[in-house]
Amino acid sequence: MKRVLLKLSGEALAGEKKTGFDEATVVMVAKQVKSLVDSGIQVGIVIGGGNFWRGRTSENIDRTKADQIGMLATVMNCIYVSEIFRTEGMKTQILTPFECSTFSKLFSKDRAMKYFEKDMVVFFAGGTGHPYFSTDTSTVLRAVEIEADCILLAKAVDGVYDSDPKINPNAVKYDEISIEEVIEKSLAVVDMTASIMCKENKIPMLVFALGEENSIVNTVKGKFSGTRVTV
Fold it and tell me: What is the pTM of this model?
């Protein structure tokens, strides 16, 4: 792989605390990403905001405003994780689809590609910049725009199941599944909009548990125990 888009769930970064950040987890991620960068792989990153806020779960305020709060949660996550990456010796830049003062640069494909050429890890924060679109959708959108070879989905669970393993102890995990089957069975890999974008643009996904030892590096090297989503 020459270029990958890594999606990190906010909950996974929170570790056992379930909210905020678990610094040991973020440092673990940083060390693995540095290993990829040092080997010549370009890495883009999208981080969910679930460790702070999920707009779709709010029942008391306007959905548009709730989603805007969620977008800002992803910006906070990217600022923090970016700085941890820098302490591990990497160069980073944060891009957002809206002006965010001096916190980030405005996203464009040309700008992202320029940073990749400078061996920088590029964080794509702020989602798509619009309400009603999840970070799943922005992940696939950015992957298509930067021409990523693959999307790496680092989750709190270790792959794709036929039902929710937290609810159903007999849930069966797939080693490999097509994006068509994901859509047909409405499996919760990414949301439906993101799934259809993956299908239309032929972007494969590798789904795995972030908490497993050396999970990111192993996934890129093909030594992972998660689920391969084919296109």
Answer: 0.92
Owner of token pair 């959905």: 63
Output the CA angle 125-129-131, nearest 5 degrees. 120
Q: What are phi and psi of 96, to 5 degrees?
A: -130, 155
* Alpha-helix residue ranges (DSSP H) falling in the chain: 10-14, 23-38, 63-87, 109-117, 135-145, 179-184, 192-201, 215-220
Question: Looking up tokens 């929170």, which residue turns up?
Answer: 14
pLDDT for the residue 40: 95
Give the span between the Cα atoms of 16 and 147, in whole angstroms. 34
> How high is the pLDDT of residue 54?
72
Question: How many alpha carbons fall within 13 Å on the CB side of residue 31?
Answer: 10
CA distances to 4, 147, 155, 169 from 141, rounded to whole Å, are 13, 10, 19, 34
What's the rounded Cα separation, in Å, for the pair 145 and 107?
A: 11
Q: Within 13 A of 142's CA, how many CA atoms are on the CB side?
A: 35
Question: Are 159 and 208 contacting, i.e. CB atoms less than 8 angstroms apart?
Answer: yes
Residue pair 186/193 in contact (Cβ under 8 Å)? The answer is no
Contact criterion met (CB below 8 Å) for 130 and 96: no
The phi, psi pair for 4, rounded to 5°, reads -130, 155
Pairing label, strands 205-209, 227-230: antiparallel
- Profile the chain (231 residues) by mean pLDDT over runs of 10 residues: 93 80 91 96 94 75 91 95 96 97 95 97 96 94 97 90 88 94 90 94 94 91 89 88
